[in-house]
Amino acid sequence: MIRQIETADYPGLLAIWESAVLATHDFLKAEDFAYYKENLPTYFSFVSLWGYEENGILVGFLGLADNTIEMLFIAATIRGKGIGKKLLEYAIEQKGANQVDVNEQNEQAVGFYEHLGFKIESRTELDGQGKAYPILKMVLAQ
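The structure assignment produced for this chain is given below.
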C-alpha cells in the first residue's frame, strides 16, 4: 500500500535510507554518508513524501518536488521485489513525475530508471550540496 508520509515516520525513513544507501552507494565517502544522514530530515521538508507499506511496515519511500523524483529508497532486505517500480509508477501516474536526478555512480539506479523509460538529459559534476558526486538529470521518454 502506498500512503503519504507523516513526520512520525521519519525514523523509519532514516532506517530505510541507511540500509538502501549502504547497499547501493559504495562510492560515498564515510564523512559524506554521515553528512547526508544527519541532514536527511531537513531534506524531507522540501519534498512531498510517499511510502510503501508491506504488512503495516514502511519498506520504501519516495520524495517528490513538483514533477521531479528527488529520492527513491527501498530497504535493502527487500530490494528487487518490484516495490521501487510500484513507487515510481505511482509518482508518474498519480503525481505527474517525469524527471529524476540520479547519482551517476549508482549504476543500478541509472539502469533501473532507463529500464522504466527514462533517458539521460544532462549531467552535472557536483550534487546539490556541492559535493563531487556527478548527477544525471533523467527525463521520461515520450
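Interim note for the steering committee: DSSP finds four helices and seven strands in the chain. The two ends are 28 Å apart (CA to CA).
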